[in-house]
């Protein structure tokens, strides 16, 4: 059976160095982040597909092992010229809230693939990014195929796939994978959700850097807020030990700091009332601009 699952990029949960380490297990030379384009792909799942076949849960686990290092090609044409990418990591994703047509928990096999950033691959990368090259299908060999209605193996019964027998849908359950050959970009995959996932590998680095910058800005904001609270506290109370209060302020978060800031601003305003810039009638009657200079 040839089938696939939607390509979705990113969400890998690893930093870039670890991703590169995984990729370089399959490279002869040491590749850098600038040399590779990596993305994640939904290879296959345990839902009943368009051919009324499905992988069982344990088959997905085994396929995850078998697809490591396997090439991505086009339309299942076994040609070295068509090799485009290679799977370097896999994971079975579980979705407990979703139930398959067979009545069990929905699971799918996620693979991470990479290809080289070469002139030859530039158009393919652009098509992946643009959602043109999206659907995929897998080629593999299974040890057993079982009828969902009667349990007969390898087509040894009269039940027809896609037909209902009472309240049972007839489909073939594929078990015990023997080999995984390749995965291909195709026009219409057997599995409806197979395809390219949305976040590319390089974008994850940008996301991490953005989060880091946001964290740094937040840290600077809190530091400045704490310093302002300490300053106001010392203005409001001459007897306050600034060092002790500063250490205490380090343990406070924004809500407490803002409340203290408001309270100390009010006390400072009472202690040091603002004096008017213009004093007396004579000054008020002056019309030259120097009245407003401090």
Describe the structure.
This protein has 294 residues and is an alpha+beta fold. It has 2 domains: 2-199, no CATH class; 205-274, no CATH class. 32% of the residues lie in helices and 27% in strands. The strands form 2 sheets. Strands 1, 2, 3, 4, 5, 6, 7, 10 and 11 form a 9-stranded mixed β-sheet that branches. It has a two-stranded antiparallel sheet with strand order 8-9. The radius of gyration is 32 Å and the shape is elongated.
Question: What's this entry about, in short?
Answer:
It is built from seven helices and eleven strands. It is an alpha+beta fold. It folds into two domains: 198 residues, no CATH class; 70 residues, no CATH class.
* Total count of strands: 11
Question: What are the low-pLDDT stretches, counting only 5+ consecutive residues below 50?
Answer: 1-13, 195-208, 277-294
Outline: elongated
Instruction: Give the total of domains.
Output: 2
User: What is the end-to-end distance?
Assistant: 85 Å
Structural class by sheet pairing and helices:
alpha+beta
Order of helices and strands: EHEEHEEEHEEEEEHHHH
The profile of the biggest β sheet is: 9 strands, mixed
State which percent range the strand residues make up.
25-35%
What is the element layout, followed by pairings?
Elements: E1 2-3, H1 16-24, E2 36-45, E3 53-55, H2 57-66, E4 71-74, E5 85-99, E6 105-116, H3 122-129, E7 136-147, E8 164-165, E9 168-169, E10 172-185, E11 195-196, H4 201-236, H5 242-249, H6 254-271, H7 280-285
Parallel strand pairs: 3-10, 4-10
Antiparallel strand pairs: 1-7, 2-6, 2-11, 4-5, 5-6, 7-10, 8-9
Helix pairs in contact: 4-5, 4-6
